[in-house]
Structure formats: C-alpha cells, structure tokens
C-alpha cells in the first residue's frame, strides 16, 4: 500500500510516494538513494541510521517514513556544502581519525551535529552522553570524542569569522 | 487488512472513531519499541499513529476534574503529563528538573538520546515492561493515569494499570491519555537507583524511593522496584516497616571507607530482608534472580542512606 | 631512499572524507542492474536428519525467482577440512545449518518465501559440551570426515602441540607452583557493517563476487574450486572488495552464504545479493572461538619461571573454520612470552552441535594470555614476589631463541613493563566511597612480521606512475578501517619522494592487484610497506636511469621558459613557487650533463641532481619527467612490482616448532580500577598501553588500532558473551549482547610506544593491529584480584561473577 508524503529533506521539499510500512531508513536508502544513512541493527541500538528530524537526532530505523510528513529531515549527505565542502563536524572527523571502518561514521556525525546545535561548547561528559546511542567497534571512541571537540571549536571560530555556519547549521 | 501506517489522526475523537472501524490497528506512539517488535513485519501490522494528536502532548499544572480524583489525587494540584510527551521534552521541563529528581534520573536512563527524542512516557508505561524505568518513580509519586475512550475519561492508580509483562488494564477501546503526578511536598526527597550491564541497557533491577523528611524520620515513604517481578512493584510491606523510622532506628552507620551500612540489628536490615521477600525476580539472560535480589537490597540501603544524607 | 618526512606524522586517512559524508559504498549500498535478493533457510534443530524439503509453496510466491536446496544443486564443500557444505543434504549439525535458499525481487519477498519452505526432520540426540562430546557413545557429529573416511570420535583432526624439556623434573625443581582453570566465551566480532556479498556471472560463465572479505585471493581460490564443483572448469572468479564496514577476522574464511549467493546467481542468471541483518549475523556468522584453558606455572626461589604447562580444550562446534586453528596461534605466547625453559602445550578440539567459530583479532592469543598472565600474578603472590618484579625477572630479550624456535629480533618488553610500572601508582590505596581499588598489568607477545600459516606468506604490490605524477598503488590486502591505505601512502611518499596526496591506493580487486595471502595477523602495514619499499627501489632506479638522458634537456627547457618570463616550476601540492634565485643569463647547465643514475634524487615530487644548484629551474617536476619518458620515440611508462615474502618458517604444528614470524611485537597494559563490592560494578579509572611496535609509521592509525583494540579487550573482559542454550543463540542483538559505548570508554588511556627499530620491518616497524586487545582482560583480572583478593577465571567478569567469587556460597 502506498501513500503520498511531503517533507523537507536536506533543505529541499520532497514529494514522493512511499510504502506505508517503510521506515524512514527504507525511504532514504531504497526510495531516494541516500545510502549514507546506514542500517547497523534495525533496532535503535547502534545509531548508524541517526538522522536529524527537526534538528533532533533520531534513529531512522525506528521511524515510519510517513511520520516525516511536514518535518525537516537532514541526513549526512545534507551536511555537505556547495562544491562538496565538508561540514565542520565532518572535517574534524577526518582530521582526528574519527572514522575507521566508517560504517558508524554517518550516524556519529549526525549525533555530533545534533549535540553541537544544542550546545556549541559541550563538555567531554556531554559528548559521551550524546554518543551513548552510537556504537563503534573500531575506534574505542577516543578519536571520535576528540573530533567532536575539534568540531565545536571549528564551528565557533567559523561563526566568529561571520560565516553563516555550514549547510547543516540549521539542523 | 493491509499493514503499515494507515492513519495519522489529529484529535482523540478521530482516534476513537478509527479504532472502532479498524480495531486491528495497533497504536503507534514513539515507535521505539513497536518498530523493533515488528521489525521486518511492519507491512503486516496495521498502525495508527498518535504522533499528531496535540492534546496528548505537553506538561502542565492542573487540577484533575475527573471521577475519583478526590480519592486518588487528594492533594489537588498536580502535574498533568500528556502520554504522548517525549522523554526528551520531559527532561527539558524545569518543573520536573526541580521537583522530581527520581523521575528525572529514571527518564534520562532510558535508551539513548535518539530514543528519548521520540519515545513517549505513555509508550514506556503502555509497553508494560517490568523493567520500564518510568514506572518505579511514578509509582512512588502516587501517580494516577488518565484513561480515555469514547465513553469518557477515568482515573486509575498507576499501580493498577500494570497487569503483567506486556499487559495493562486498558480496555480494547481505551487509550492512555495522561499521567497525573501530585506536586511534591516542600520537604520531599526522591531517589532512583538502577543498574544495567552497560550504561545504555534495560535495567536489570531498579528502585525508587520517595518520602518526606519530616523531623528526621522517613514519613510518607514509598518504595517501588523495577525488573524484579512481572510488573513494576510497590514494596508496601517494606514501606510499612520503615515508615516513621529515624536514622537511629534504621541502624545506618557509615563504614570507614565512606560506605553506608545497615547494621544487622537495625530496622533497615530487616527492611532489606523484607524487600527481598516482597520482590519476585526471575533468572534470565540479563541477570539471575539472586543478583537482582542482591541489588534491590543494596539499592534500598543506599537510597535510605541518601535520604538521611540530603 | 629519502629521509622520512611523512612517516611518523599525523595524517588523515584518504578514504575518510567519503566515509564521513556517506559516499563510501559498503556491500549494503552496492546495487547491480537486475539484482535479486537472496535469503537462507536455516535449521530448526541442532542435530537432525533431513527427511524431506518441500519448496513448492515458496516457488509459487510471486516475486520468487529461484528456490534451491542441497538436493537440486551441486555439492559445494566449504572449510579447510572440507567437511562442511554450502547447503546441507544428509543432516543438520547445528542450528545455523543452511538447508535451502531463495532468490527474489526484494529481501522481504525472499524472507517471506523462506517461511513457506517445509522441512521434515528426524531429530537426533545432540551434544553441546566438548567434554561430553569426547565420551564414548556421544552423538557423532560427523560419521565421515571431509575425505569420506569414517571417523573414530568427535575430535577434530587437527594437531597442535609443543613439548620441550622434562616437565616432571621441572615441577620437582620448582619452589612454587600454581595451577588454574580459565574459561573464555564465544564473542561476536560485531562489525558495524553486517556481512554480505553479491555474486554475478557474465555471459562467458565467469564469476564476479563483491565480497566483505579480508582474503580476496584465497577467496578467489575457494570460489574457483566451487566453480569446478559446479561443472564450470576453467571459469574464473574475480573478487572485488567493497568498503568493508569492519573485519576483525570475520573475513578470513569463505562462508556458506557466499557459496549460496553463487549458486543462486548461477541458477537465475542474475546478480544475487545476500545480506545479513544484525540478528542473522549474530545467529549465523561464526563468532570468536571459546576455550577452556588449564595452566600450571612454576618458578624457583628467585622467581625465575621453571615451566609452563597448558592444556586447551576447544568446543569446535559443528564444522571446522579458523576457530579450530586457534591453538596454532596460542603456541607463540605459550612457548615464548617470558623466558620459560620447559613448556608443555596440548590442545584438544572437539566437534559439538554448537555454532562454530572463526577468527577474531588476536586469534588464540587473548584466550591463552588471559590464563598465562593471570596465573603469573598468582604465582608471584605464592612466591612472595612483586608482580612487576616477576615480569622483569623473566622478561624476554633481543636475540633470544624461544622454545618454539621464535628468533627474537627487536624486543622492547622490558621498557613496556617499566612504562606500566611508572605510569600507575602501585601502592595499595583505598577506593572512593567504600569501593575497592586495584591495579594490575599483563604483558603480551604477538607476531609482528606477519604470521606464516600458509605455504606462501607473501604480499605483492604494483606501483604505476602516470603522466600526472600520480602513484597508483595496487595492493591485494584489505583496508578495513585500520588505516592501511593511509600507511601505504605515507611509506611510499617518503621512500619515493612524492607528496602523500599523489599516492592513490586503489580498491582491492583480484583482477588488478597482485596476490596477497590476506589481511590478518597484524601484517597489513608490515607487508605492504616492505613490498612497497622494494617496488620503490626499482622505480627509482628506472626513473634515474632515464634521467641521465632526459634531465639535461628538461633543465634547459625549464631555464629557457623561465627566461622567457614563464613561471618557475611549481612544486607539487600547490606550494608557492620559489622565486629566490632568478636564473642568471649565463647559468651553467654542465652540472646536469654526464651524470650517473645515482646522482639524481626525487623529493616532494621534484627531480634534481644531488649536488646541483639550489635553483627552481634545476628541479624538474616528476610529472614532466614522466611525460618526457612516455612521449618520446620508444617511450615507456614506469610501473614496478614487488613480491615480498618475509623471512619466516611455516611451523611444524605437530611439534610446535618454527620461527613463524619475521618479527615479534611486545607490549604491556596496566589498569587502575575500582570495584563496588556490594554490586560488583567495575569502574576503570585509567589505562596504560605500552607497545613495542618497532617504529611509529602512522600515529593516527596506530592510536586508533590500540584504542580500538583496548575497547574490544574491555568488552571481552567485562561485558561480552554469546549465550547459547542447546545450540541456539539467546542474545542475537545489541539489546542483550553488550558492546562498550563511549560511556564505558570514558577513562583516560596513556599510550606509550617503544621504538626498537626492527631490522626486518619497514622503517623499523612491526605489526600493531591486534595486540591492543591481547593483554586487556588479564590486566583487568589482575587488578580485580588486587582489589578483591579473589581470582576471576571466567570471562566476561560480570558484576554477578565478581560477587559470586567474593561469596562462593551464594546461591
């Protein structure tokens, strides 16, 4: 059974038909070809499918696609700016070695993005708390925490230079 | 009937109408449990989403104008928590931050940030897991649930809401509309202790305590435990033992290392024995009944110590 | 070779931008035109005869393209003992046995079709305990072995032992002796990206497999053998490795699901993807091998080890995968960690109706190091010797030849132990809030110069220079997230003399890359860089030979151009052109004439004469030289290959002797923790990891390997266990299989690297991929004993096990 869905995805209005049983994850990956959002467990435990819904981190595997109606969804692809410029969070993950096998990275990046939207200068404890729903088997998390600290300072200095954040600035 | 998300009504009246027409529909709140339980079979599961029902969301001070309110919520003014309110929204409420530390601690222990951003308090309770972290603190707060149907609304003590693992006393046409929590007393203390295997985990045992400190005694004591019985449990016999007890009665001493310890001849030690009889834990994957009993004893010892330390 | 500029410096991984922006393609993301989705039906019983399989209802389901069973497909044998089959026909031997498979238009239809397949079984008595499985009259798992010969019992025909010295005499001689029994569980590798593959035949009957593998070339061999068994002799398999999503040993074997995808692709004539979800991965993918280890060690009055006796019992499960070979890796630490004159090692591996195990990081080493190092602390206690001191007394030394014949080159174990001694406070201290504080450490030894377990332990590499000065690298090993490509980049940039961004490591593909035995045994960087260094030597020789003729002309041209007002040559990487020394009208070009190849140098992408003028026009960009070589009469392109086989020996497993690695990596970890004696809860306060890795090649990748290993070691020590009942997996999800999160890893870690400059290592480096988790669990066990006064000998050391150890009468 199909139904119409209208929502904002990475800043653009999308109108599409979806299967009524599709999860947001199915719509993104299979329906719209945005395979950056990963399915690591399908049960809300690993966080590889984390996306922003109205600026808040949610598991795309636990949300029905139709529930995105009239909402603003941002995926990891939507953090990349014009000309392929990576967002501060993404650059910091690259620079600090926050991505190893990379499968958890899109979800980690989105959780970090949500945190920094809420708290531009989070403590290490706050960072760890925000990552509790994102499993990583490669890094031991230390380089990810370091990346988020670096991202926070990158974002602050870029905001200070008067640049209007990156594409994901609005969540 | 074909599954998937069939309806997204905006009012409770619509919800009732649709349920009458399509009783097979399962109610979808945050979906964080339902989507896991039905993973891979959502296409066969007809769903009705409550997410757009605005009257189910929000937290406000209010006086319950419902049958039975005078008995169940004698204090009058309460906090009314819409069942559809997300855990994150609750954690952002200053009212909860200020007045309900045990509830706040319990809510922040549920799942991850991503889960709390969509999971609702109503979902946590209606799922009726013995380990639901929201339940023990609400039980000790003497919370009542507001149940709505086409026929009207009724109040029920939260304790009577839980019937067994996964079972509630909701009728087929009823839905949980709100949770009513009496406002805290000036001298109220509440504590919530839990343990999982790692930080983000279903509780293997939990304990909530609420009381007034009165004149250095435990008064109006309420105790409830999670994951140690078929439902979240009020520990009434243990409460009765400790009601009105002073620090001295409890026999609580501080060991050299700083750990509070219930002396064997004190009231608290007896209460700990009573609590381990009052609960009915099972052995499962997550822990043994033995360990769960042990945790509840320790939690009680520490919770009482914390009350006297505050 | 030029000096190192990039090796040893922090450099981001080249593949990281694609990973953090969602562009990297994992097997989950790869789609082929016309692709079908496969799903596999598994056994409902742990041990049963298959009487009948009815697939007719599944076949009738719209969207189903094929349903196959072992009865209507060629028999494909799987595993190194060849006793497993892709689809089972005679009987099922555990709950994960594959009995039928479906290819359908989408995964949902495929899975629904599975439910329509009816199987009739005759249930057989089953055995789930290796001790019971060895008893006479135990249910026989395999009536015949892989070659069809009748079996005598349930023992896996794998021999690995080592006996050196007179054990009884050594026991007599010992002043102190301590024995203990240890048990380590199955744990799941838990790659964040689940397992899967795509199989596709072309019109010639050749096969391409997109695989999540760490052994593309052994997989090619295995799949080619399957093609033969399918009657497709002479056909070939091309294995393409997608972005992996984690390996940790899961990709060291070929798996039934891959053969099933091949069978389905062949039957349907279309590409078929088989992808496991998390629950399937937990149920049907092989975990890390479990083990029961009995150990006895003794020492003399001075604390010198007199003997070590180790007996290992492994529950092999129903079939042999690499779990069965864990003893071959245990051999090294058992015979060679610390100086032990007398060593007796025996291993028994027994078939049961449980799941079967494969490789995981460290592969046998953490299992047995748990016993060795934990028992060593008990021995120190018995002998009244300080725990650090007993390790100093028995410390390995460079130049030592160990009982198994391991020839120790560089060895920095002593420095690692000292780092642990220094960085933690070893005095007894109380914990906070009535908790008990403890400190503990454990050492480790692992192969650091690859580990020879196959006739060839080699790695090939191809370096192809193009007209733009790019160095295209083709290497058969696998980037799993460990930073292999990043390390290859730095090593080639330094040794060749170009900027790292010019080094482009291509995806691993058996059609383009030279042979490699696989990415395991901490060998990736050691092997790839050694191979690369050899290829670079050849490349530079050829390049400089061409320079004899070409360089003078290029310099003259550059000078002419610059005099005409053109820009001076721009160094690679976009640095500002050097305008410091404008060419004089009478610049003397004779310096470039009549030079020998050895007079040239390449640095940062610029070719020059070593004693030539330090002027921009006297340094020619590599790409210019390469084009000059290419576009001339009798032109040439520079491509070089090297095939590096390390100086090591394939051990004789029956004797347990042989120098299995070209180098050995040592290390030690120490931990300070607090434990709540009432709840059993453990809080790690800090960790020290000290590792002798020879030389730090790639600090960012190395830190990641050590920290990631430590996190896995922490999970192994405290949280992780695959639980089973009658062969069924009880916790096939992250809800009940607990991995450490960022919260559990909140303690500080002191990373110490001891650089011992290994002579066989590239730039002096040794392998570092696995060691991070090897000593973690025993270090924690030793700290817990320090805190509690009791020994935890079963992993994971859960709060409940801790409380029961404190109160053995508890029920």
Give the beta-strand count of chain B. Answer: 16
Taking the alpha carbons of the first and last residues of chain C, their distance comes to 67 Å
Q: Would you tell me the overall average pLDDT of chain C?
A: 96
Total strands of chain C: the figure is 30
Largest sheet of chain B: 5 strands, antiparallel
Roughly how many Å is the radius of gyration of chain C?
29 Å
Shape of chain B: globular
| Rounded radius of gyration of chain B (Å) | 20 Å
Structural class of chain C: alpha+beta
* CATH architecture descriptor of the largest domain in chain B: 2-Layer Sandwich
Beta-strand residue percentage of chain C: 15-25%
| Proportion in helices of chain C | 25-40%
Produce the secondary structure layout.
The complex is a heterotrimer of chains A (171), B (310) and C (811).
Chain A (H helix, E strand, L loop, with lengths): L1 E8 L2 E8 L4 H8 L18 E4 L2 E4 L12 E3 L13 H9 L8 H14 L5 H7 L11 H19 L11
Parallel strand pairs in A: 1-5
Antiparallel strand pairs in A: 1-2, 3-4, 3-5
Helix pairs in contact in A: 2-5
Chain B lengths: L3 E4 L4 H10 L4 E3 L5 H4 L8 E4 L9 E4 L6 H4 L5 E5 L4 H5 L2 H6 L1 H8 L4 H4 L4 H6 L8 H6 L3 E6 L2 E6 H4 E3 L2 E2 L6 E8 L5 E8 L9 E8 L6 E8 L6 E2 L1 H7 L4 H4 L1 E3 L5 E3 L4 H12 L10 H21 L1
Parallel strand pairs in B: 1-3, 2-3
Antiparallel strand pairs in B: 4-5, 5-10, 6-7, 6-10, 8-9, 11-12, 12-13, 13-14, 15-16
Helix pairs in contact in B: 11-13, 13-14
Chain C lengths: L15 H5 L15 E7 L5 E7 L1 H5 L3 E6 L7 E2 L5 E2 L5 E2 L5 E7 L2 H9 L2 E6 L6 H5 L26 E4 L2 H7 L2 E9 L11 E6 L5 E5 L4 H14 L7 E5 L14 H13 L3 E4 L2 H7 L6 E9 L5 E13 L8 H11 L5 E10 L13 H19 L3 H7 L19 H11 L12 E12 L11 E7 L5 E5 L8 H14 L5 E3 L18 H40 L36 E4 L2 E4 L10 E2 H9 L8 E6 L19 E12 L6 E11 L6 H21 L4 E2 L2 E2 L19 E6 L21 H13 L10 H8 L5
Parallel strand pairs in C: 1-14, 12-13, 16-17, 20-21, 27-30
Antiparallel strand pairs in C: 1-7, 2-6, 2-8, 3-7, 4-5, 9-17, 10-15, 11-12, 11-14, 15-16, 18-26, 19-20, 19-25, 22-23, 23-24, 26-27, 28-29
Helix pairs in contact in C: 9-10, 10-17, 13-14, 14-15, 16-17
Question: How would you portray this structure in words?
Answer:
The complex is a heterotrimer of chains A (171), B (310) and C (811). With 171 residues, chain A is an alpha+beta fold. Chain A contains five helices and five strands. Chain A has two domains: 75 residues, Beta-grasp domain (Ubiquitin-like (UB roll), Roll), CATH 3.10.20.30; 83 residues, [2Fe-2S]-binding domain (DNA polymerase, domain 1, Orthogonal Bundle). Chain B has 14 helices and 16 strands. Chain B is globular. In chain B, helix 11 runs antiparallel to helix 13 and helix 13 packs antiparallel against helix 14. A five-stranded antiparallel β-sheet of chain B has the order 4-5-10-6-7. The N and C termini of chain B lie far apart (57 Å). The model of chain B has no long low-confidence stretch (mean pLDDT 95). In chain C, the strands form eight sheets. In chain C, strands 3-7-1-14-11-12-13 form a seven-stranded mixed β-sheet, sandwiched between helices. A five-stranded mixed β-sheet of chain C has the order 9-17-16-15-10, sandwiched between helices. In chain C, strand 19 and strand 20 form a beta hairpin. The mean pLDDT of chain C is 96. In chain C, helix 13 packs across helix 14 and helix 14 crosses helix 15. Among the domains of chain C are: 170 residues, Aldehyde Oxidoreductase, domain 3 (Alpha-Beta Complex), CATH 3.90.1170.50; 239 residues, Aldehyde oxidase/xanthine dehydrogenase, molybdopterin binding domain (Aldehyde Oxidoreductase, domain 4, 2-Layer Sandwich), CATH 3.30.365.10. Chains in contact: A-B, A-C, B-C. Chains B and C meet through helix 14 of B and helix 18 of C.
